[in-house]
Every structure is written in C-alpha cells, then in structure tokens.
Amino acid sequence: MNSHKSLIPEGQIERSILMIRGQKVIMDVDLAMLYGVETRCLNEQVKRNAERFPEDFMFRLTTAEFEGLKSHFAISSASWGGRRSLPYAFTEHGAIMAASVLDTAKAVEVSIYVVRAIFAKIKWQELALPLRS
Fold first, then answer.
1. 48-55: which pairs have CB atoms within 8 A and are 24 or more residues apart?
2. pLDDT digit string (tens) for 74-106?
3. What is the number of structural domains in the chain?
4. Residue 73 belongs to what domain range?
5. Where do runs of H (alpha helix) occur along 26-104?
6. 133 near 26, Cβ under 8 Å?
7. Rounded to an integer, what is the distance from CA 34 to the centroid of its chain?
8. CA distance linking residue 128 with residue 22, whole number of Å
9. CB count, 10 Å around CB of 77?
10. For a FRET experiment, which of 16, 28, 98, 120 has its CA 20 to 30 Å from that of 58?
11. Is residue 80 assigned to a domain?
12. What tens digit of pLDDT does each residue of 18-58 get?
C-alpha cells in the first residue's frame, strides 16, 4: 500500500476546499482528481447512487455561483474542460461517500487516509481539552 505522503501531496486537500453556501466543500473536478478518476465518471456514479447524496452531502452549483467562482479565480471556460453542466460541490460527508460509490483502489485508499486523519484530529482535540481548562 502507498505511504500517506505519496497518496495525497501535502496541502492538496486544503487548497481545494472552498466556502460555498456557508459550507466547506470540494468541487467535483478536484474530488475526481483526488480519487484518480475522470470528473465525468465521478458524476455518473453520483447520479446512479443519488439516494446516498442528500443535500447536506452534495449540491449542484447555480449558474450565478459557478460564474462567481470562475470570475473569483479568473478561470476561463476552457480550463473547466468545456463543461456542459453545472459542477457539483461535495461536503466532507459527500466526499467520503463518493469513495464508496467509485469502488477504485485509489478511492478506497484516499477514503481510509481521510477517515484516519479526521479521527486523529478528533483525538488530538480531546487531548488538548484538559490543557484549556
């Protein structure tokens, strides 16, 4: 199995997180890259498994949100790969759920890495609580 360092380059996830509708999300194109699949494949699997992705796991950007995102980052239409539909935004729960529907080795590895990182952070916060008192 790959080491954690080679699995996800340091800072890649943090740089991909955006604040949209008051939620921290990762866009479908970034999540697909993280999981080593094409954006089209990710979105197809999400559509086939729509019942696993309620609004608090994933939502589709509005045209205004997408235009604002493109102008904020000065992104040309060409750099979005000629998208024909609005992108999806995944919350942390949706990002982990996406790994379960992709069923690729890299998606499984990344989801294990993310879950371990989340629980390590929780454990670290629990250890820090007595220090705050």
1. 48/101, 49/101, 52/97, 52/100, 52/101, 53/94, 53/97
2. 655 544 556 778 999 999 899 889 988 997 888
3. 1
4. 7-132
5. 28-35, 39-48, 63-72, 92-102
6. no
7. 8
8. 27
9. 9
10. 120
11. yes
12. 899 999 899 999 899 888 899 999 999 999 999 999 999 99
Whether residue 87 is contained in a domain is answered as yes
Starting at the edge strand found earlier in the chain, the sheet holding 58-60 runs 17-20, 23-27, 88-90, 58-60
pLDDT for the residue 47: 95
Amino acid letter, 97: M
Distance CA 80, CA 60 (A): 15
Is 81 in contact with 42 (CB distance < 8 Å)? Answer: no
* First vs last C-alpha separation in the chain: 41
Contact 89, 20 (CB under 8 A): yes
1 occurs within a structural domain? no
How far is Cα 80 from Cα 63, in angstroms, rounded to an integer? 14
Task: Specify if 57 maps to a domain.
Answer: yes
